[in-house]
Amino acid sequence: MRCGRFGRRAAVSVALAAMAVMCVFNFVLTPYFECILDGDSCDEHVSFMAGVYARSVSVTCLVAVAVAWLEHRGAVATYLERKELHDAYKTPATADAVDGRPRYVGHATFGAAVFYTSMALIVPINAFRLYRFVSDDRPVAVIVYFSLMYSQNLYACLYETHFVRLFYALYTRFADLNSEMEAIGEWIVDGRVAREEPPTGRHGAGWIPCDGDDDGRPSHLYCSAATGQPLVDAVERLRFRHRLIREAVDALKPAFALPIGLSLCNLCVMALFDVYYHLKNSVDQPAGDLATMYIFLWLGQYTFRFFVVTMTVDATVKQAS
């Protein structure tokens, strides 16, 4: 077991080191590659702006690699600890939704949908463009340059997908907690039961008087019909679970805040440059079907990635507040 774990860590470390080397290589040699793309007229025609696109990708990927190397293992370990502790505190009276299943069972499906959609938007178009470079007998340096840049962009996308998958699991738990709190809150006003009849929670958790006498007694004297748990204990348990999920959110910040922020900025940079070069080339000659396909697929990729990250974070923050 230890050998297998050590082997996985070693493989991950080697992969991260290789990706870091690729980022540095592309960042340093971007002017050289841009010279080749510009017809070998290096010093006169290649400006600083010509390499902003590739260097933006390299910096974003390098920061993600460095943060993953330093922070990811500890951050995710704390995240999993808090999440598993939260799940352990779920009681039979509040664990099931209306259909008898936890609300967060769909997070694996959500993660898979995001992953496969991202791969469908990135891999085919990039592979096709590299194929065109080869078939058009472009210089090997150009093929290497774009291969490394596409690999770095793919790594940044995978890091975003990993973040979204982890964060969505917290979103569903916040939504579950809020639904349970709302179900209890509907029956309590100023610490007393709001109706004369013994309330039944919308998750199948009926609350009955602990001593069997329903004579308008304070809410803390009510117990779960399913487990016998006092209502006040159920509320405290919900508060504790809410705190655990907030701590899980905080645990992810060191490993994802900076890389994801840079990645969102990089998506905007790539979109601006792709639109600029598409319009610039269209002035020189009418854009063909291939160029139009490129620009729409690239913009679709950037839009999808930006939307998924921002909406997942926004929805989670709203549920947490």
UniProtKB/TrEMBL annotation:
UniProt keyword Electron transport, yes or no: no
Transmembrane segments: 12-32, 52-70, 108-128, 140-158, 251-273, 293-313
Highest taxon of the lineage: Eukaryota
Organism from which the protein derives: Aphis craccivora
Assigned keywords, A-Z: Membrane, Receptor, Transmembrane, Transmembrane helix
Name used for this protein in its record: Putative gustatory receptor 28b
